[in-house]
Amino acid sequence: MSDFQTEKVITARRQRGCPECGSQILPGQRYAKETGCWDGDFYSAVMCLPCKAFADRYVLSMRRCSMLNADEVSYTFGDIINEAAEFAEFDRPDGQSLPALRDAVMAMFDQIDADERAYQIRERENARRARAAAERRHAEVVASLRMLRGMERCSAIPYGPPFREIRP
Predict the structure, then answer these.
(1) Distances (CA, A) of 159 to 34, 54, 138, 141, 163
(2) What is the Cα–Cα distance from 117 to 111, expressed in whole angstroms?
(3) Measured in whole angstroms, how far is the alpha carbon of residue 38 from the centre of its chain?
(4) Can you tell me whether residue 69 is helix, strand or coil?
(5) Are 106 and 54 in contact (CB under 8 A)?
(6) Sheet containing 30-38: which strands, arranged edge to edge?
(7) What is this structure's pTM?
(8) Contacts with 18 (C-beta within 8 Å, 6 or more apart), sequence order
(9) What residues are paired with 46 via a beta bridge?
(10) What is the dihedral of CA 51, 52, 54, 55, to 10 degrees?
(11) 106-133 pLDDT tens trace
């Protein structure tokens, strides 16, 4: 679990490589830097902005997965693209570059999210219909109870049992 973490977007002053996709970050380009402490171990990592957006999206997808606790979501720096492809059960074609794999898995996450949104909309609609049906049934029961109470009043039996005790 993360003890603390800091994320910054920095402008490069020298050339560096993105450990995720292998692309070059040239001087003047912006890149993401994360530093922090995870389970007592300090770390510092850099990545290009497309990989940072991909990492954020990957974490969001893992948090939406019901089998993971949001506090336990993490990823391995330097291997996030392969890790995400495995998480999404994406079959990687032979010879596919890491940036192309990143874009393909991101498109897959987009489709999964669209399917999830459609599922949630259907579930809300089903819940709304069930609630409306329950309210109709409740209204019918209340109306029939009111009708019975009205009949009891007419026969001089105030909310009591359907018979009267006869006294000698």
Answers:
(1) 72, 68, 20, 16, 11
(2) 10
(3) 23
(4) coil
(5) yes
(6) 2-11, 30-38, 41-48
(7) 0.61
(8) 24, 25, 31, 46, 47, 48, 51
(9) 33
(10) 120
(11) 888 888 888 888 998 999 999 999 999 9
